[in-house]
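Batch manifest, entry 17 of 40.
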Amino acid sequence: LSDSLDTLEQMGMNIEVLANTEKMARKELVTEQDVKEAAKQNVRSIKIKPGAIVTHLASETAGELGISIEL
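Output type: structure tokens
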């Protein structure tokens, strides 16, 4: 995972650790790990930028954990 994140950062992607969504900028990429981290922090909604990438596994996991992914 670390190598993949490094590659994405080298491609110009901004990778952020999920935190309180009130203080978090809208995400450009949402992975399963992001969703699981949100659940650990009792975050119920992940905000994304228009055109953001949400992996299929992130979407499935969000549904299972009751976390919404929204613009």
